[in-house]
Amino acid sequence: MNKIKNQLKGIVSWPLDERPRERLLSRGPHSLTDAELVAILVRVGFHGTNAVELGRLLLKQFGSLRAMAQAPLAALLDVKGLKGAKVAQLAAAMEIARRVSIPDKRERLLIKGTAKAIEYLMERLRGLPDEHFRILYLNRRNCLLDDVLITQGTVDGVRPHLRNIVSHAFRTNACNIIAAHNHPSGLADPSESDIILTRDLISALRPLGMKILDHIVIGEETIYSFADSGLLDELELESFAPYPTKRKRSKE
User: Fold this and answer.
1) Digit-coded pLDDT (tens) for 11-42
2) Is pTM, for the whole model, over 0.70?
3) How far apart are CA 183 and CA 195, in angstroms?
4) Is residue 252 part of a domain?
5) Is residue 243 part of a domain?
């Protein structure tokens, strides 16, 4: 009964050993439930609902912390009791967690083949709510010089500008690149626009002495490599032709 009364009054009225923030400091973050960790981020609830209850509501609505981290900002903003500042705090925390799990590019990661590239890209591209197009810039030894998010948006709206890709290659003194993007629909089969873009990249980079080593498409369950499938070699040959062959459109 006392605990129920305390909840109605807000977390500040709880005994110190029951408050999430104080318990985290005294026992460590592992001692908190998912809802209590979320409560620390949102800080306060709304009328009639404290921060822990708000955390439970969020987890119930999205299903898990992972699902909440992958949800678009618009979905978080639609939740009762969440406004701009709270959503920003949640999004920042989730993005920090994502980046911590990604190898630091300053470690000069050596990209030896498709498997290594996929291992690196999976953490950055799988589970995103919209399409992200990235370029890995490599030196002659295929050491990672830079990893750049070129563009993001809806599946139909993402069309990277070749000049941006090429200009950054000059700035980083790159010799090779690996293109990569995700398909939020889940299927990794390349679309017609993916194929055309790859062919255009080949044509744009060749006169500059640069080469595209692969274009990797990350789906939720499958992955497609232009290099491993042999499609990259086909496009290399097609890029020399004055009238490129029209291809049958594939579905994402």
Assistant:
1) 777 887 788 889 889 888 888 899 899 888 88
2) no
3) 14
4) no
5) no
